[in-house]
C-alpha cells in the first residue's frame, strides 16, 4: 500500500483553475470531503488506504487548499465548493457519487446532496456538525469549554501574533489539536497537513451567516446516510442527535467509542470497516430458508 502514496499528483482543470486530485485504487468511487474549512485531503492519508483494495478513492483539495490553486477572485463560499464538487463529478464522469464527509466536509456533503440529490448514492458523515449554523456555533462553544485557562491565554496570544503577521496558524493548531482527540498519543499518527486560514475565515463566516438546511433535508429522504461520531467528539453523539438526526431521522448514528473528533485518525480500522460495509454491495443470502 505504501507504493500507492507515491503515485503522481494529478490536477484537473475546473473553470480555469487547477484542482489537486489524488485517485487511488479501482472499483466504485468514494469521494472524500476534507474538513477545516481550509484543510486538505492529506488528512485522510494513510488511514483510509485499506479501502483502495475494493474501491476507487477520490481525494481532492478544495479550492485554495493544499495544492489546489487559489480562487482567482480570492473569494470562497459554501456555494462555490458545492459547484466545484459538481464540476469535479462531471470531469471524472461519475453518474452518482458516494460521499465521505469529515467535519466541515460533512456539511459540504449535505449541501451538495440537497442541491443535487439525484447525483448522490450514499453519504457517510463523521465528526458531523449538523444541518444548521447552530452546530458550527455549538462546536466553537464546546471547544472553548474544553480548553484550559493556560491554553486559552496561549491561544489568544498566538491569535494576536498571527493577525499582526508575526505568528502562524500552525501555532494556533499546536494549542488546539490535543483537544480534538481522545488521547494525545494519537497526534503522532496524524500526518502533517496545511490549512489555509483565509479560506477557513471566509467559509466559516459564510457558515455562521447562511448555513441552514432545515427546509431542504426532505430532499435527502431517498439517500442512505450513516453518521459515525466519536464518543468524546467536541459535538458528542447525544448532541448530534439534536443537531442532525432530529432533522434526518432515517440517518443511522453509530458511536465510535474512546474517540474524539478525528475518527479517521484515531480509529482507522473501525472507520474503514464501517465504510466498506456501508458503501459495498448488499450482502446476498444464499441457501434454503428454513421454516420458523
From TrEMBL:
Signal peptide: none annotated. The keyword RNA-binding does not apply. InterPro entries: AB_hydrolase_1, AB_hydrolase_fold, AB_hydrolase_sf, Peptidase_S33. Residues 29-268 form the AB hydrolase-1 domain. Pfam families: Abhydrolase_1 (PF00561). One of its GO terms (molecular function) is hydrolase activity. Keywords: Hydrolase. The keyword Hydrolase applies. Belongs to the peptidase S33 family. PANTHER family: HYDROLASE, PUTATIVE (AFU_ORTHOLOGUE AFUA_2G14860)-RELATED, MONOACYLGLYCEROL LIPASE. This is Alpha/beta hydrolase. It comes from Virgibacillus tibetensis.
